């Protein structure tokens, strides 16, 4: 059952990208750790971390593509699931600081001491264990998506209305996490991390390992998502996107179909957030900003909605552009981003990967037609000779 | 209300009694009652706004009636169920505008329609069996789309899309089929073919056809129900109904 699921997932492009990601996962850390800093092939640690961050963004965009590209749910709140996964990881990293904080309290993180709290809130228990935090990074976003989706899809909230309530969801979380008495560090968030699984979070080795983990998580998620969209379930999902009522009148429970995709997608976003936080060293309520979720939509649109590989390409290109642009002309970045979105919508509605695929297909059809014509001419010739 | 209808309830496949529904004060259906027998092919005619599509919405669970009874096979109360449940019970619906999955191939359209488990996990791990393959091929030849099975539904002609949708309904294996204007926009040849196809289908299940095309209704040669302003105006053979002065005034005369 599982093997057939995976086999169906692997078309040629997916295999290539997955293999590429796995090669990168091994090669980049090797070039960072095993070459001298003046070696021409050496990759400096800051680049490793920067691209590690891009890979987590790519995973977030891939998660969005599952719901937006294949099921037509334009979620404008996906960064919320990402941030929740990030907070779960951040809580683990805070607990790892232990007595090394500025107040030296072995149990309470600094901000709690500062707020004069006497004991650890209940929901911080268990986060001293990595496995628990990792589990929560997946379960909490998944549960939120499940509950949210349950109500939204059952009430048949669709289209722009759904997009608006997803924005409201992330905005509500933003306001909640800003409050000090929520117990998540208020507007400063969680930071000053020291180590992860006993390794210093600043060391080159840890940075490389986090990069590799991000690349592997992305490769795995790509195979899983591809398996999902190529199964019969995936075809139903596309059916829901294109003709929802037809799917319903065929006897499919549209709300269940949407709920499954939305929940899986939120869980993937949570994984991305959990990998993101140790690489950037901070998580704060700013990650819940509605604009963040909209940016994810732009990455996905630029790369190509509904192509799985497109969102990965889009996330890396747009964020790479952002890093260069904000260093050179910081004040113009938002204009450039907005302009990019308008240009892509107008001239590349299928995104980079979608358009490339279209060109290749057209060329193939053209060649096929020419070959068929040639074959026909060849077949007609002997008769003409007679 | 209608004693004749009440007596027919236990043996009927579809039973509507005193069904009314209004939208913003407009009475779309006004105490509509009729009965379809198992294996019957019934044509429903009526002017625009007579409530034909609303009637289909009520039978398939899209709209809830304000009052009245709707029973399937004499025992199942359809007013308490939603679209997916009703579809799974065995009622298929063809829309007025052909509605197929345009970005899927003809084959995939039929595979999705095939009467198999509809859950998330059963579809996620579904594998095409030899039996399912044979069934899809059979339907493909019934609706004359075998040589287009790998084409995207978006690239089919209008008539072919109508047939694909009928094929999808067949794949669903319903006991009752509701067909809304199957020949709208079809050529004369296609219309004749469609009448043959529907008669073929009606051999093994009940079919209700809503249509405007009187020639097509004559081709079918079945019992006709004429609706107007949300209730039944006349019922009987096509010649009987078209001779009815009320029908002429309300529908044919215009």
Separate helix tally of chain A: 15
Helix share bin of chain B: 25-40%
Q: Taking strands numbered 1, 2, ... along the chain, how are they ordered across the largest sheet of chain B?
A: 6-7-8-3-9-10
Structural class of chain A comes to: mainly alpha
- What is the first-to-last residue Cα distance of chain A? 59 Å
Strand content of chain B: 15-25%
Please write the string of helix (H) and strand (E) elements of chain A: HHHHHHHEEEHHHHEHHHH
Mean pLDDT of chain A: 93
Largest sheet of chain A: 2 strands, antiparallel
Q: N-to-C SSE series of chain B?
A: HEEEHEEHEHHHHEHEHEEHH
- Could you say which overall geometry of chain A the principal axes of the C-alpha atoms support? globular
Number of helices of chain B: 11
Strand order of the largest sheet of chain A: 1-4
* Fraction of residues in β-strands of chain A: under 5%
> Can you tell me the overall shape of chain B?
globular
The main sheet of chain B comes to:
6 strands, mixed
Whole-number mean pLDDT of chain B:
89
> How many strands in all of chain B?
10
Helix content of chain A: over 70%
List keywords for this structure.
heterodimer; A: 386 residues; mainly alpha; two-stranded antiparallel sheet; 15 helices; globular; B: 254 residues; alpha/beta; six-stranded mixed sheet; four-stranded antiparallel sheet; 11 helices; 10 strands
SSE topology sketch:
The complex is a heterodimer of chains A (386) and B (254).
Chain A: H1 2-9, H2 12-33, H3 45-71, H4 78-97, H5 110-114, H6 130-154, H7 159-178, E1 190-191, E2 195-196, E3 199-200, H8 204-230, H9 232-242, H10 244-249, H11 254-280, E4 282-283, H12 290-303, H13 309-328, H14 333-347, H15 351-385
Helix pairs in contact in A: 1-8, 2-8, 3-8, 3-11, 3-12, 3-13, 4-6, 4-11, 6-11, 8-9, 8-11, 9-11, 12-13, 12-15, 13-15
Chain B: H1 3-8, E1 14-23, E2 26-36, E3 41-45, H2 52-59, E4 67-72, E5 76-77, H3 83-89, E6 91-94, H4 106-113, H5 120-124, H6 130-142, H7 158-171, E7 176-180, H8 188-202, E8 206-210, H9 214-220, E9 224-228, E10 231-236, H10 238-243, H11 245-252
Parallel strand pairs in B: 3-8, 3-9, 6-7, 7-8
Antiparallel strand pairs in B: 1-2, 1-4, 4-5, 9-10
Helix pairs in contact in B: 4-7, 6-7, 8-9
């Amino acid at each position: 059952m599982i093997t057939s699921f995976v086999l169906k997932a692997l078309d040629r492009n997916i295999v290539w990208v997955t293999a590429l990601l796995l090669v990168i996962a091994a090669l980049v850390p090797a070039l960072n750790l095993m070459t001298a800093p003046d070696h021409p092939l050496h990759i400096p640690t800051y680049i490793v971390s920067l691209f590690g961050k891009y890979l987590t963004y790519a995973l977030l965009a891939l998660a969005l593509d599952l719901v937006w590209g294949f099921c037509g749910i334009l979620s404008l709140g996906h960064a919320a699931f990402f941030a929740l996964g990030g907070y779960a990881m951040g809580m683990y990293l805070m607990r790892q600081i232990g007595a090394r904080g500025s107040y030296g309290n072995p149990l309470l993180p600094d901000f709690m001491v500062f707020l004069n709290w006497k004991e650890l809130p209940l929901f911080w228990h268990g986060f001293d264990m990595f496995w628990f935090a990792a589990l929560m990074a997946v379960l909490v976003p998944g549960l939120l998506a499940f509950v949210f989706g349950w109500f939204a899809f059952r009430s048949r909230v669709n289209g722009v209305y759904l997009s608006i309530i997803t924005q409201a969801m992330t905005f509500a979380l933003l306001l909640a996490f800003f409050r000090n008495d929520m117990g998540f560090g208020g507007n400063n968030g969680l930071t000053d991390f020291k180590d992860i699984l006993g390794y210093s979070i600043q060391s080159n080795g840890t940075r490389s390992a986090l990069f590799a983990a991000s690349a592997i998580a992305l490769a795995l998620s790509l195979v899983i998502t591809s398996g999902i969209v190529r199964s019969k379930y995936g075809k139903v999902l596309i059916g829901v996107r294109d003709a929802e009522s037809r799917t319903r009148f065929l006897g499919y429970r549209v709300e269940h179909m949407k709920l499954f995709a939305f929940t899986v997608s939120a869980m993937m976003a949570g994984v991305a957030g959990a990998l993101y936080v140790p690489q950037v060293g901070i998580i704060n309520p700013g990650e819940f900003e509605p604009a963040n979720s909209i940016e994810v939509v732009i990455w996905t649109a630029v790369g190509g909605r509904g192509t799985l590989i497109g969102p990965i390409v889009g996330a890396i290109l747009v964020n790479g552009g952002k890093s260069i642009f904000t260093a050179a002309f910081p004040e113009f970045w938002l204009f450039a981003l907005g302009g990019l979105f308008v240009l892509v919508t107008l001239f590349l509605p299928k995104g980079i990967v979608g358009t490339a695929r279209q060109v290749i297909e057209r060329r193939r059809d053209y060649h096929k037609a020419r070959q068929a014509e040639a074959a026909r001419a060849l077949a007609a010739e002997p008769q003409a000779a007679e | 209300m209608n004693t004749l209808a009440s007596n027919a309830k236990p043996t009927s496949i579809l039973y509507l009694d005193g069904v009314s529904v209004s939208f913003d004060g407009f009475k779309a259906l006004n105490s509509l009652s009729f009965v379809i027998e198992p294996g019957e092919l019934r044509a429903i005619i009526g002017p625009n706004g007579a409530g034909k599509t609303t009637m289909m919405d009520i039978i398939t669970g899209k709209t809830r009636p304000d009052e009245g009874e709707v029973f399937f096979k004499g025992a199942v109360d359809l007013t308490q169920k939603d679209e997916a449940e009703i579809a799974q019970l065995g009622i298929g619906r063809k829309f007025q505008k052909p509605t197929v999955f345009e970005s899927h191939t003809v084959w995939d359209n039929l595979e999705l329609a095939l009467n198999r488990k509809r859950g998330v996990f059963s579809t996620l791990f579904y594998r095409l069996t030899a039996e399912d393959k044979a069934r899809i091929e059979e339907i493909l030849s019934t609706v004359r789309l075998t040589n287009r099975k790998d084409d995207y539904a978006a690239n089919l002609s209008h008539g072919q899309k109508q047939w694909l949708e009928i094929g999808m309904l067949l794949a669903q294996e319903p006991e009752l089929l509701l067909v809304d204007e199957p020949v709208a926009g079809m050529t004369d040849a296609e219309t004749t073919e469609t009448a043959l196809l529907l008669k073929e289908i009606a051999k093994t299940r009940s079919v209700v056809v809503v249509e405007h095309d009187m020639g097509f209704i004559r081709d079918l040669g079945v019992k006709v129900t004429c609706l107007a302003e949300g209730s039944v105006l006349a019922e009987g053979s096509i010649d009987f109904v078209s001779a009815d002065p009320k029908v002429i005034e309300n529908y044919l005369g215009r």
